[in-house]
């Protein structure tokens, strides 16, 4: 038999590889679906590419690549048998458990066991060889199979090196046995049970003992009694008492000797009478004065205490939380409730899969289609069988939580090379939404761009207060960031009284007053959005000097879908992000037609098309330059304030300059938004106001300043002509943001410079067929020039269909849920839990989504 198997595998030996350092082995998830070894058909791992495929998709990979040898992995999870006395029977010694995999569902490790099966499968005949089969298989095949079975998670190898260690789930978390000894932990007043210490106290999650630490990662002192207790009892997990909040807690594993995560920490704490929703970080003395507000926010937004009815099926699939990943799941749930996204990715599923690259795990379109199909197919949101419900009710462990899908591959791809999204820390859902729209723009060349439904034009009107002359410009935007003016709160008197009581309590060390949430009318938010704003350091081209100026913004076009984030997050005096505690009466229906831009009015006179005289980059490096122009004015105090925070000095100068000397806070926001740019720390270089004549430039100059093809693709995907895009990028030194502004202020002329046109055509031909957009011209605004961006203009009447809510003190912590209106009813998506909403908290949302109402 050994000879037969050896001969059978000889033709395929050149295609079988042993995983090397750096190879990622996908043995827990299919590249095209959310099938896993626990799925009915198991998972097939290619022994050449190490990609995983479900039964439905392995044939596609075989036909595309010709790879014939796969390892088939199957895991069966079953309940342990019970003995005569009712206890569980110990697992059989010959039970096969050899896959280093996480369970795709939450099982109690004391009541369930896994049995794994692996075999080689040779396509196209589906010839199966059971494993292990060391004696009969060639040595190379045996080594390759062993390496695949023992390979670490494909995602662990991609985790970036960070200044902050990324925590892993403890292997004791799911199987932790807790003693039923009647121990109840009070909310404060803790002390070590052996030495009376009141600091650095740790609660053992097995026996409930409260003991002091010694050498843990926070560096605080102690007598080491928590460690002594572990050595005596082998109880592995402990939680630091003064770190317990609704967001989580600091957990340490004595056995693993590191800080860890415990997905079931809420249940483990409740065993000892601790409710995480009612806890907040303390110093074992006074509870934080925001605890009441935090409890209210978490309970109201998650509709805690309501008997919510679980829903299943197409469009009601939950998404597993990978650890602070709710900002991704809520964003994707809302996007795939938009028909254009469903059509672009799920409607074209087979075409996208058939034309996917050899490594579909790294293809954006494939992973978007996979996620959309997982959410909309209903395959991963099936209701439990009647027999399962009866069994769960009998055991008093009924859970409304479905299996859902785990977006590990999607998160790994979209967060690649991003310092924040690639971490395990909580992030801002608004920033992720913009990041995702940017990825969609980059990957939609030559196909339908679903983000077109969010794009619209803003008209900015700037007026010189002295000459009364005006300038109208347009810019592209995707979000309408709505201010939250606290001064317009309807309960302003209550807020003033609360603030006085709070200050008095701080001075007298008394009990803090009950927090008061500011209630702001939505009309006040709209008014704050549209009212004129002073333009600091405004340079009037009519006066050729600085003057006072005001700016107003209006909608030049209305998008098909309106995204309205509330400006809830700001920075405190110590530059720590904080969240405004506000409630806004957001309406279900919205009419913005009165905010439509009108353009230049009769009687208005335009400002001359001149830019302020500033020093060119060449002049700043040339000490022998003429002093006929002044250096740009920069607020050095703001520069130094930012530099003291650790930012590069030149980056601080650029931030202050490009925000018009409007203060350190505005410059700080600019720094955060531009940190990833390659020239972030380069010296300030501003273009001369005398624009060179492109016609007189030699062709060699055009070739030297050839824009990156990626930048060209981004702008052309927005509907701009290729020649005009190249000229804009060259003029602005390949700066995308400035190039977009240049396009709006320099409409395409009939006669393009010859060398630009030739260069564009040459590049065009080098990169294949012309780039076109899948949207028909009928969706374009009739008022938009063909050279402008693709927008879908229409009436400004909208209806609310979804909103994302945040719980926590800042975007750096907390949790997200979303509510989506489907089939006339509101549905709450809270990770894997999908239920009908009883009281959707519309006034506490963070990002609101509206769709346009059809014309009557």
TrEMBL record:
EC number(s) reported in the record: 3.4.19.12
PROSITE patterns (alphabetical): UBA (PS50030), USP_2 (PS00973), USP_3 (PS50235), ZF_UBP (PS50271)
Reactions performed catalytically: Thiol-dependent hydrolysis of ester, thioester, amide, peptide and isopeptide bonds formed by the C-terminal Gly of ubiquitin (a 76-residue protein attached to proteins as an intracellular targeting signal)
Domain spans labelled UBP-type: 168-276
Any one GO BP annotation for this protein: protein deubiquitination
Binding-site residues for Zn(2+), renumbered to this chain: 192, 195, 212, 225
CDD domains linked: Peptidase_C19B (cd02658), UBA1_UBP13 (cd14384), UBA2_UBP5 (cd14386)
Domain spans labelled UBA: 633-674, 706-746
Alphabetical list of Pfam families matching this protein: UBA, UCH, zf-UBP, zf-UBP_var
SMART domains for this protein: UBA, ZnF_UBP
Top-level taxon: Eukaryota
Domain USP: 317-853
Recorded family membership: Belongs to the peptidase C19 family.
Annotated protein name in UniProt: Ubiquitin carboxyl-terminal hydrolase
Gene from which the chain derives: usp13
């Amino acid at each position: 038999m050994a000879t037969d198997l050896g001969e059978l595998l000889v033709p395929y030996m050149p295609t079988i590889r042993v995983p090397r350092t750096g190879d990622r082995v996908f043995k827990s998830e299919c590249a095209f679906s959310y099938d896993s070894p626990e799925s009915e058909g198991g998972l097939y791992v290619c022994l050449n590419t190490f990609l995983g495929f479900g039964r439905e998709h392995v044939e596609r990979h075989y036909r595309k690549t010709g790879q014939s040898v796969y390892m088939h992995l199957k895991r069966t999870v079953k309940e342990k048998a019970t003995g005569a006395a009712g206890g569980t029977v110990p697992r059989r010694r010959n039970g096969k458990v050899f896959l280093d995999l996480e369970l795709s569902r939450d099982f109690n490790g004391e009541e369930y066991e896994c049995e794994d099966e692996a075999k080689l499968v040779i396509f196209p005949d589906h010839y199966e060889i059971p494993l292990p089969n060391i004696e009969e298989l060639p040595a190379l095949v045996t080594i390759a199979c062993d390496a695949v079975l023992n390979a670490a998670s494909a995602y662990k190898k991609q985790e970036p090196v960070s200044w902050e260690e990324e925590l892993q789930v403890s292997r004791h978390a799911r199987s932790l046995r807790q003693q039923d000894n009647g121990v109840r932990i009070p909310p404060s007043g803790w002390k070590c049970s052996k030495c009376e210490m009141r600091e650095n106290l740790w609660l053992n999650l097995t026996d409930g003992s409260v003991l002091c630490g010694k050498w843990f990662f926070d560096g605080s002192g102690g007598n080491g009694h928590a460690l002594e207790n572990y050595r005596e009892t082998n109880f592995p997990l402990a939680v630091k008492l003064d770190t317990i909040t609704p967001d989580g807690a600091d957990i340490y594993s004595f056995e693993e000797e590191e800080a860890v995560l415990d997905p079931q920490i809420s249940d483990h704490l409740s065993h000892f009478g601790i409710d995480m929703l009612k806890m907040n970080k303390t110093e074992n003395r006074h509870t934080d004065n925001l605890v009441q507000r935090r409890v209210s926010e978490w309970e109201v937004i998650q509709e805690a205490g309501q008997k919510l009815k679980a829903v299943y099926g197409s469009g009601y699939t939950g998404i597993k939380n990978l650890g602070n990943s709710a900002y991704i799941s809520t964003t994707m749930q809302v996007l795939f409730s938009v028909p254009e996204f469903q059509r672009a990715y799920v409607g074209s599923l087979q075409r996208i899969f058939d034309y996917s690259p050899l490594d579909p795990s790294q293809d954006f379109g494939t992973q978007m289609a996979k996620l959309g199909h997982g959410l909309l197919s209903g395959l991963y949101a099936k209701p439990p069988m009647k027999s399962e419900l009866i069994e769960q009710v009998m055991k008093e462990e009924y859970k409304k939580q479905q299996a859902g899908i785990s977006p590990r591959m999607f998160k790994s791809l979209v967060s690649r090379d991003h310092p924040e999204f690639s971490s395990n820390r909580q992030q801002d859902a608004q920033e992720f939404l913009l990041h995702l729209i940017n990825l969609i723009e980059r990957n939609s060349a030559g196909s339908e761009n679903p983000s077109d439904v969010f794009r619209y034009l803003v008209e900015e009107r700037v007026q010189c207060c002295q000459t009364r002359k005006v300038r109208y410009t347009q810019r592209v935007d995707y979000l309408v960031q709505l201010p939250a003016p606290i001064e317009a709160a309807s309960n302003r008197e209550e807020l003033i009284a609360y603030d006085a009581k709070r200050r008095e309590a701080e001075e007298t060390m008394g009990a803090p007053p009950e927090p008061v949430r500011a209630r702001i009318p939505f009309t006040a938010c709209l008014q704050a959005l549209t009212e004129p704003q002073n333009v600091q350091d405004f340079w009037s081209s009519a006066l050729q000097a600085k003057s006072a100026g005001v700016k107003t913004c209006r909608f030049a076009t209305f998008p098909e879908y309106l995204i309205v984030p509330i400006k809830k997050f700001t920075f405190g005096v110590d530059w720590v992000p904080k969240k405004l505690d506000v409630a806004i009466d957001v309406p279900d229906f919205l009419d913005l037609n009165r905010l439509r831009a009108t353009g230049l009015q009769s009687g208005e006179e335009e400002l001359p098309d001149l830019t302020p005289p500033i020093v060119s980059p060449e002049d700043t490096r040339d000490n022998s330059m003429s002093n006929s122009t002044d250096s740009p004015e920069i607020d050095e105090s703001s520069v130094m304030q930012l530099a003291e925070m650790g930012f590069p000095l030149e980056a601080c100068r650029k931030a202050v300059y490009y925000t018009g000397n409007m203060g350190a806070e505005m410059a700080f926001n600019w720094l955060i938004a531009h940190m990833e740019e390659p020239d972030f720390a380069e010296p300030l270089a501003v273009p001369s106001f005398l624009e060179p004549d492109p016609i007189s430039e030699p062709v060699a100059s055009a070739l030297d300043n050839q824009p990156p093809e990626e930048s060209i693709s981004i702008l052309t995907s927005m509907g701009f002509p290729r020649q005009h895009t190249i000229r804009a990028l060259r003029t602005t030194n390949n700066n995308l943001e400035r190039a977009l502004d240049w396009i709006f202020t320099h409409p395409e002329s009939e006669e393009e410079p010859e060398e630009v046109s030739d260069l564009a055509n040459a590049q065009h031909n080098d990169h294949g067929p012309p780039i076109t957009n899948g949207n028909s011209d009928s969706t374009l605004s009739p008022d938009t020039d063909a050279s402008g961006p693709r927008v879908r203009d229409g009436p400004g009447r909208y209806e609310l269909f979804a909103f994302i809510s945040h719980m926590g003190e800042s975007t750096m912590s907390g949790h997200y849920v979303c509510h989506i209106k489907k089939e006339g009813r509101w549905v709450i998506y809270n990770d894997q839990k999908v239920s009908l909403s009883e009281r959707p908290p519309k006034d506490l949302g963070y990002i609101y989504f509206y769709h346009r109402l059809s014309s009557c």
